[in-house]
Amino acid sequence: MSDNNSTAVDVLVIGGGNAALCAALTAREAGASVLLLEAAPRAWRGGNSSHTRNLRCMHDAPQDVLTEAYPEEEFWQDLRKVTGGNTNERLARLAIRQSATCRSWMRKHGVHFQPSLSGTLQLSRTNAFFMGGGKALVNAYYRSAEALGVRIRYESPVDRVEVVDGLFRAAWVNGERIKAKSCVMAAGGFESNREWLREAWGQNADGEWPADNFAIRGTRFNQGVLLKAMQGAGADFIGDPSQSHCVAIDARAPLYDGGICTRIDCVSLGIVVNKFARRFYDEGEDFWPKRYAIWGRLVAQQPGQVGYSIIDAKAIGHFMPPVFPGARANTLEELAGQLGLDATDFVRTVADYNAGCRVGTFDHTALDDCHTAGVTPAKTHWALPLDTAPYYAYPLKPGITFTYLGLKVNEEAAVHFAGQPSRNLFVAGEMMAGNVLGQGYTAGVGMTIGTVFGRIAGAQAAAAVMQQGAEHAHA
Ligand SMILES: Cc1cc2nc3c(=O)[nH]c(=O)nc-3n(C[C@H](O)[C@H](O)[C@H](O)COP(=O)(O)OP(=O)(O)OC[C@H]3O[C@@H](n4cnc5c(N)ncnc54)[C@H](O)[C@@H]3O)c2cc1C
Question: Count of CB atoms within 10 A of residue 3's CB?
Fold first, then answer.
């Protein structure tokens, strides 16, 4: 395979996050020449992957940083439950099985792991944490890719893709046409495209455009340009554009790149009210890692797309404190005043909740028996009365992590056209996560999908180059 042609390349990888890097490294290891195009400048490279902390891995016995066991079946049941069955079992199990073996490959490329952090996400059994977080992970992959001879271009947003009869021909960047024998697209979802989000979420009954009040937790560069291009090219899609990983974050977070430190993790330790000081969902439904990703949508469905997470002094020390300090007051009336809520309604909501609490043995590491009775909505676990000053509150807004609308794939990560897999166009990461995640989320599975399908896509793209070489040799 040639390695020094500046206008044509064996494998073109579009994107510069985890999935793209896994694809580029794997294709290069298989002997292909690889060019990676990253839309962002070097300082902002790595997309949403640079904000991550861990990936979810199956394992049948304790392994390095992972405690106990997390067998395939349990991982699958977790995924089935959070997606409500809206998942492709074959592809999901493929990702789960390969999650068992990817860590040694990651280590080879400079990724280090560390034991799980403590806090409200109890993940030491299920998730392997990256030493230094996602930023260190992408930096390690870039270093390894450069050392292996992967060519990398920053500030190179692909704006057009040429596909003829289901075959990739070339991509366009800043007016330049780049040919390749095969291509892996790993350019994220469309979560950073505010116009598209607005269109996907539409208008609610109150005439509001909910998406106008969303913040984007990660990169500004995932504009969905390639997803749009593939819609234009007639590729097969999966998923609903309004489905996404959407978290309740601090309403004071910046529009882009607020990252992990703007997440509010104390929901299950208290109550959440809307701007009318009413509770609207069971805050203690399940463990926080299995529920945090539904709260963005829940807040998005509230008037004004705002909520308030309320705790009392007993909760302090039991969750990871967010970057902005919460409102703090010695009385509930005072707290309501600081939040701009009607004090009478707020005090009544808290009093009703407190009266409904049936306190057993509080245990935040188990689905405990502290629950409410006679309150709607019920709080089914960790229900302790809010009775110990000072009281704290965090304002919430929806923070979109990534969208689920994606390209339909098979086990080879091939893009499909009218049900037929392309022979040289592959896709990985957020651009196809919807095959596994029709809805819902369980922490760490985004990086599992990106790592597994990134490697598959890279291997298949390299194999497609070999195949073309063999066909030419016989022609
Ligand atoms: C704050 C935050 C925390 C998260 N924490 C976790 C976690 O701990 N564990 C987990 O599993 N998941 C986590 N996720 C989700 C995770 O980030 C994604 O599932 C995963 O990173 C997706 O990888 P990707 O490579 O598909 O996309 P990205 O990492 O977003 O990469 C997309 C890349 O494509 C580039 N790009 C976009 N358009 C173009 C174009 N037209 N041309 C060229 N390049 C383009 C972007 O610049 C970017 O480099 C988190 C996300 C956020 C935002």
Answer: 13
- 475: number of Cβ within 10 Å: 5
> Which residue owns the Cα nearest ligand 1 atom 1?
259
Whether 96 and 56 have beta carbons less than 8 Å apart is answered as no
Topology of the domain comprising 8-189+224-241+405-474 = FAD/NAD(P)-binding domain (3.50.50)
Pocket (CB within 6 angstroms of ligand 1): 14-20, 37-40, 46-49, 51-55, 157-158, 186-188, 217-219, 221-223, 225-226, 259-260, 401-402, 429-430, 444-447, 450
CA 390–ligand 1 middle distance (angstroms) = 38
Q: Give residue-wise pLDDT tens across range 302-349.
A: 999 999 999 999 999 999 888 999 999 999 999 999 999 999 999 999
Ligand 1 atom closest to the Cα of residue 259 is 1
Is the Cα dihedral 354, 356, 360, 362 positive or negative? negative
State the fold for domain 247-399: Flavocytochrome C3; Chain A, domain 1 (3.90.700)
State the pLDDT confidence band at 1, using cuts at 50, 70 and 90.
Answer: very low
CA pair distance 14, 157, nearest whole angstrom? 8
Please provide the size of the chain in residues. Answer: 475
Q: For residues 302 and 275, is the Cβ–Cβ distance under 8 A?
A: yes
User: In the structure, what pLDDT confidence band is assigned to residue 93 with cuts at 50, 70 and 90?
Assistant: very high
